[in-house]
Amino acid sequence: MINWNNLDTLTSFKELSEVERVNLAEVMSGENGAERVKDYSVSMTEDLTYNYAAKAVDDKVLAALAKLAKEAQLTEKYAALYNGEVINTGEKRLVLHQLTRGQLGDKVEADGVDKREFYVKQQQRIADFANKVHAGEITNAAGEKFTTVVQIGIGGSDLGPRAMYLALENWAKKNGTFKMEAKFISNVDPDDAAAVLNSIDVAHSIFVLVSKSGTTLETLTNESFVKDALKNAGLDASKHMIAVTSETSPLAKSDDYLAAFFMDDYIGGRYSSTSAVGGAVLSLAFGPEVFAQFLAGAAKVDEVSKNEDLLKNPAMLDAMIGVYERNVLGYPATAVLPYSQALSRFPAHLQQLDMESNGKSVNRFGEPVDYPTGPVIFGEPGTNGQHSFYQLLHQGTNIIPLQFIGFKNSQIGTDVVIQDSTSQQKLCANVAAQIVAFACGKSDENRNKNFEGGRPSSIIIGKELTPETLGALLAHFENKVMFQGFVWNVNSFDQEGVQLGKVLAKRVLAHETDGALKVYSDLLDI
Ligand SMILES: O=P(O)(O)OC[C@H]1O[C@](O)(CO)[C@@H](O)[C@@H]1O
């Protein structure tokens, strides 16, 4: 039987709080440090490793975390999720994003269909459509090939797919699978849509309207913006647009689109990159085979995440160390720092994934919780971040745990040797240096130049960022966030916190305001 209990009622959580703290600077110094870097490492897939040597944990802390993971029944809860229980209690929905990339457990039936079959069918329909576009069988009205794909969507209908596209753009160009350039319109700021439209040839562009609900104001506004532009160019908008939505949304049966592809209410926006939401744009941009490799990478990590042994389950381990840092050590934030330009928008995606999922103050039954839940997430690619906010990370008054990601090889492969090292070597040297600098610090009589150290980090290391490693990376973080939600006993799959602002904005637009809202409306000339 599964028990959904608050973290502070668990005996093993009290025990964890009493385990002696680790002096990170001490354990990471000298030979001991070298041994830790070798030992505190676990494979995520054959190409990716999670290394947690520079986290403030030792065997005692890890044993206490394993006990907590067991008492919180994390593997059982994961199994309940992929076997189709109603895990999203707020919206009374199943949570099925893992089914888009593999069958992890029982067949899941909902709405009278086998859900795995439903997702696979959508992937096949998308693959077929994308192949026809690439082959010139689906064209614009003049019979010319589409050369650009533009995704219109916001939140999960934008951030994940955009981050994934950017992550693979150069890889696809290098490996001969690049088919079409992709652009993204998300913000309701008219400058977003206008700038994208100014940068493309609309006559040769295909637009993917993505909205699960089919009611998101920003997305519908941008759709009209684009339709106007197509009309002004003398084009029939319905021959340039496809939709990705749920079958129950107002967009599903409209004649306004060349085709419609479906996901459903069991896939949260921020978990939708492996569904039709990511599938359409990525298959059009890189071909369906590349999208399939991306799914295969995610499926591998989903499988590893079933492991009951904490030390052999990187997503669960990462999650538990994060809980220790948040609820025992009291750290408020986590920085995501990819040493990979291709992952430039990955931190923004993780921001939504983590903060929209676990930024909650009530448990899954709607009762207030008495402990901190999700941390603040932010990040930028290294080495750019080093010349920006790392000052606070090294010497500020808050300790911010760090999540580094690094690859041995670059994607494009073009490089130069300057002062005896390549740029790729410089990049990797920097991430290694940062881990040790943060952990060990450096004492100096001048307090201003003193580094206290004791600043924890982990690193995910891969050979190269490929579609498969990207899928694995994505699933690692999705599963980490899911496990943390289980430990905190929150529902990680709804987002009521975004509603109030939407309601008030509607009131402003309808001029139904008073008090402070009225004055702000006047100040902004609405
Ligand atoms: O795909 P939709 O329904 O347009 O929603 C877009 C985004 O809006 C939200 O519901 C909240 O603003 C996100 O969770 C979601 O990713």
Automatic annotation (TrEMBL):
Function: Catalyzes the reversible isomerization of glucose-6-phosphate to fructose-6-phosphate.
GO biological process, one term: gluconeogenesis
Domain of life assignment: Bacteria
E.C. code: 5.3.1.9
Keywords: Cytoplasm, Gluconeogenesis, Glycolysis, Isomerase
Protein name stated in the entry: Glucose-6-phosphate isomerase
Subcellular location per the Swiss-Prot or TrEMBL entry: Cytoplasm
Gene3D superfamilies assigned to the protein according to its UniProt record, in alphabetical order: 1.10.1390.10, Glucose-6-phosphate isomerase like protein, domain 1
Gene source species: Coprococcus comes
Gene symbol of the encoding locus: pgi
Assigned protein family: Belongs to the GPI family.
Main location: cytoplasm
Active site: E356, H387, K502
